[in-house]
C-alpha cells in the first residue's frame, strides 16, 4: 500500500483525492489547514460517497466513488508513513504547508508541487533546510485537470484532462522507495502523461502565465485614458501585434537567463525552458487554428473563445479594468517578480520584463523593483530569490 498525502481543500485537492483514492494499492490522506475545511469535508463524506465525475472527450462521464481514507488538519496524522506528499494549493499557501509538515517528514519522502509555481523550490530549500536535500522534490507546470468542486467534500467535476504535463524532479540524497515520476503517474492513472526533465529552476522560469497575463494587461491598459468601457474587451483573442511582440520579447529574456545559467553551470539542464510560442504549440496543439506566429496562435486559439479582461462594473453598467485580479495579485509576486529576481542574481538585463513589472507593481500599489533592483519593501511578499537572501546562482540551484 502506498500512502499519498494530498494537501489542500480546493478544486485541485478534491480532484486529486478522488482520482488517487481510485487507484489500486493507494491510501489517500488529505491534509487541509484552512479554516474548518477538514471538519466540513469529513462530515460531508459521512453521509455520502465522494464522487469524482470525469467528463471524457466523447461527452461520456466516468464516475469514481472512492473516498480518501482520512481528511485532517493534523499534519502529524497525515504525514506518518507517507511516501509522497502533494501540494495542490495556490502558491501563496505553500509555505504554510511546508512549515506544518516539516517536523513530520522523514528523509526519502517525495514532495510534489502540483502545480509548483515560480519559486516553489526556494520555499522548500529555505523552510525545510537540510531536510530538503534528503527528499526528492518535484514541480509541475500546471494541474493535470481543469476541475471544479460541485459539492464541497462530496463531488468534484473534471472538465478536462491534459494529455501531458511537464515537470522536473530533484532526486534527494536519501532515495525514495519508489521512482518519483512513476509513483505520481500511478496516483493519476494514464493521463496526463508526466514528462519530467531538467532542473526544477526550469519549471520556475517556464511559468508562462507570469508574462502572458502581465504583457496582455500592459498591452491593453498602459495607455488607457481612464474612460469606462461599454463592454469587457477580449483578453487573449483581443491582443494586438505590439502585445504579441512584447510577450515574445519577455519570453526571449527568460531564455537568455536559462542559457546564461547553463553557460556558467554546464551540468545544469534548463532545456525545459522553451519560447512561449513553442509552449502554445505544445499545450494547445489541437485548439490553435493559425500556427504561423505568436500573434496568430493566440488570436486563433479556440480554447480562448469568449475570455475577457477581468473587469468590475460601475453603477451605470460600464466596465473598468480590475487590477486586483489574480493575473496581477498572484502572477506578479509568484511569477514575474521571481523571474526578475533570478535574472538579477544571474546578471542578465531584462528591459522588457522591467518595463512590465514596474507598470504592474504600480497598478497593485506594491514596490518590488526599485532603481533596477529587487529591493522594494514588498519583496518579502514574493518568492523572488532576494526575499530568501539568495544572492548566488548556486543558491538558486539549491546547491
Ligand atoms: P482553489 O482556489 O480551489 O484553492 C482553494 C483552496 O486553497 C482552499 O480550499 C484552501 O484549502 C486553500 N486556501 C485558500 N486560501 C487560503 C488561505 N488564506 N490560507 C490557507 N489555505 C488557503 O485552487 P485550485 O483550483 O485547487 O488550484 C490550485 C492551483 O492550481 C492554483 O495555483 C491554480 O491556479 C492552479 N490551477 C487550477 C486549475 C483548475 O482547474 N482548478 C487549472 C490549472 C491550474
Automatic annotation (TrEMBL):
InterPro entries: 6-PGluconate_DH-like_C_sf, 6PGD_dom2, NAD(P)-bd_dom_sf, Opine/Lysopine_DH, Opine_DH
Segments forming domain Opine dehydrogenase: 198-362
Family matches, as Gene3D superfamilies: N-(1-d-carboxylethyl)-l-norvaline Dehydrogenase, domain 2, NAD(P)-binding Rossmann-like Domain
Molecular-function annotations in GO: oxidoreductase activity
UniProt name for this protein: Alanopine dehydrogenase
Classification lineage: Eukaryota, Metazoa, Spiralia, Lophotrochozoa, Annelida
Gene: AlDH
